[in-house]
Amino acid sequence: MRRTVAEHQAAVAGLLRSGYDAGRPEVLPLADALGRTLAEDVRAPVSLPPFDNSQMDGYAVHAADLADPCALVVAEAIPAGSVPPALERGTAAPIMTGAMLPPGAAAVVPIERADPPRFYSAAERAGGATVTLPRGVEAGLFVRRAGSDIPEGETALPAGTFLGPAQLGLLAGCGVGRVPVRPRFRVLLLSTGDEVAEPGAPLAPGTIYDANTTLLEAALRDAGADVTRHRLLGDDPAVLRDAFAAIPSGSTDLVLSTGGISQGAYEVVKQALTGSSVEFSSVALQPGGPQACGTISGVPFLGFPGNPVSALVSFEMFLRPALSRVAGSPAPRLVLDAVLVEDVRSPEAKHQVRRGLYRNGEVALVGGPGSHLLHALAASNCLVHLPEGVGSLAEGDSVEVTLIGPVPQDPFAAQDVPVTGLPVPD
Amino acid sequence: MRRTVAEHQAAVAGLLRSGYDAGRPEVLPLADALGRTLAEDVRAPVSLPPFDNSQMDGYAVHAADLADPCALVVAEAIPAGSVPPALERGTAAPIMTGAMLPPGAAAVVPIERADPPRFYSAAERAGGATVTLPRGVEAGLFVRRAGSDIPEGETALPAGTFLGPAQLGLLAGCGVGRVPVRPRFRVLLLSTGDEVAEPGAPLAPGTIYDANTTLLEAALRDAGADVTRHRLLGDDPAVLRDAFAAIPSGSTDLVLSTGGISQGAYEVVKQALTGSSVEFSSVALQPGGPQACGTISGVPFLGFPGNPVSALVSFEMFLRPALSRVAGSPAPRLVLDAVLVEDVRSPEAKHQVRRGLYRNGEVALVGGPGSHLLHALAASNCLVHLPEGVGSLAEGDSVEVTLIGPVPQDPFAAQDVPVTGLPVPD
């Protein structure tokens, strides 16, 4: 079956939706919820700020003294955390940032605008110290009104919000200690084939080390999924069929395999799934053209092609966006326009995805189009899109790139930020 | 002490360097190394590919038959993972993608260009089947040469490389099972003050919930640091001094506190550290002006201001870039140019950092400049830089933004990627 990239993306999203149950939220303490996605709207149980408070260290001024705050008697100081008595007319209370505004007060004058521009000691206050403030203080000056950030009962964060530091900080600030998050997406990652060896083991002639399982496990974990690795020995389709039959229902949201789905004479995944409802497609994508998608014994299944670059491109083009859509995380990749620093050719009938290094609005290709170029992939920080219908592009043309790694960059001028992360290849 | 943003950035980086020992790498299995930073160069113990192999499913052609590969006798098929016998002149061997090229072969012709364009069965081969291939096959066609991605002994990844899925995949492909990574940066996060309550506990009048500890713990963890929380009761400087004295040397790379470093009458951190080597600065930054930086009993110490937005801005402007530089992770934030969709004013004497929502090259401000606006911070995905010397900017002007959260975006046309992540506020 031939498919466009968009058609296969829709098929993968539909497949994931059929198996993933977003309706069983986990309730986690805030400290465990980083990077998760909110399953339900969370309302603010208190207003932020919870009460009118001072934005500055200074003097709280009575509403009746705003026009002419001259020679005011200095009242008891108000530290943050206390509940102050009412402010009397003709007095000014030293008040600290974040402290509750006393009843009667209408504004705060910062200490540096007071005369004298310093706080009195307790002994000075007891001796009847006075302070003079500038005339014509505006009501509300340096007062943070209760609820001005968010009023009690309003939605603090809607369902689907990705929980980063700021979002968790807001929930903590509202007093919310535990949050309902969507369940992690559970993936069973299958590795098959006689020709691949585990990293660290000796390499027999004719065999290669298994890069795909490590690469996809990391990519899935990075995207927030729970991953289980399952190694099948041998190239026997029956072993694979038995493995599928043994998956306990309800424990796995997706089975993912690589390799064995192409046009060769020994395609173990294809052979094992003959007669099943899994569809084997040729997607107009390079690399990543051969794709398998369907269910086996009711469990959603995706088969990616076996070259490591093809596997990563398949993940980034099909699975990661579907996880974003269906499970709410990971956050979508950033797609940017970039200026090509070289000419490039591409097969017009396919959406070609090259690897590149993006920096300061420009992109250089890293390595050729070959899907075995793992070292070049590891030295790149973006996927470069050469869409269907495009046969060639010239230096200076604009392309879209998907950022998949750290961007070395010249930071804004005033900031002495180092350039670290991925080294630029020679 | 008055400082520019760049001066304080340099001071913080210097402080972190004085305490962090990058020279004690941890050696981790690949599966545990995601998001870590390589401590040493890693060389490829094998070439990639390890041997000449086929890029396609097709026929391996003898060097002597390239010019006229007509009616070649079909030899034994070569699956991936096997070691094939030498190819004889006048024969062609069916060969699968990734399979070792047989000695004598010089090229591979894809199966779809063969006549017939399908693989024979074993019985057909035994019966003396022949195949005809196009004339004039180029030597090297569809052959992946040993070492063409990386030759044995070359640096696969240099020290300082941030380890994402592609980098771990490369190491696995090279057979490297364990990698030396830089140690995690260890932070002791202090919370102080009587006026803050733990989320989930009841809120006494005049007090607020502690947002900073949750926010900074998440920000530090997100940046790859190990975080220990340490809650100090009371506002007594002596308690804080005792806590510092009790930190075991060699267990903490940084102590971080928030609040208590400003110009008020009750600044517990400042009072506790009177006479120490900690410097209290006024940085030309808003929010985040008051900053403390130094060592206590030999342990590096940073004090951030106490409002949540000030704390996050301090983290993003000073601590996160220093962690990138000194510990090698996290990867630096992406800084982009964006077009303002509204007019904005800024104090000329300071680098003002506003919160914004970046999308499709444009940025809208979220909330006002107030450093207590936690809800607005949680609804933003970037920091907007209004540098020193800039008093106002107009709609359509360009500003630099630092991305700190997911970007909702219109994906490239052919890709049906959903817009999820952070919801856009009303």
Automatic annotation (TrEMBL), chains A, B:
Enumerate the InterPro entries for this protein: MoaB/Mog-like_dom_sf, MoaB/Mog_dom, MoeA-like, MoeA_C_domain_IV, MoeA_C_domain_IV_sf, MoeA_linker/N, MoeA_linker/N_sf
Residues in domain MoaB/Mog?
188-325
Q: Kindly give the Gene3D superfamilies that the UniProt entry links to this protein.
A: MoaB/Mog-like domain, MoeA, C-terminal, domain IV, Molybdopterin biosynthesis moea protein, domain 2, Molybdopterin biosynthesis moea protein, domain 3
Q: Which cofactor does it need?
A: Mg(2+)
Superkingdom of the organism of origin:
Bacteria
**Key words, A-Z:** Magnesium, Metal-binding, Molybdenum, Molybdenum cofactor biosynthesis, Transferase
Q: In which pathway does it act?
A: Cofactor biosynthesis; molybdopterin biosynthesis
Q: What is its EC number?
A: 2.10.1.1
Q: What does this protein do?
A: Catalyzes the insertion of molybdate into adenylated molybdopterin with the concomitant release of AMP.
The Swiss-Prot or TrEMBL record describes its family as follows: Belongs to the MoeA family.
Among NCBIfam families, the record links this protein to:
Glp_gephyrin, molyb_syn
Q: What is this protein called?
A: Molybdopterin molybdenumtransferase
Give the source species.
Answer: Arthrobacter burdickii
Its lineage reads: Bacteria, Bacillati, Actinomycetota, Actinomycetes, Micrococcales
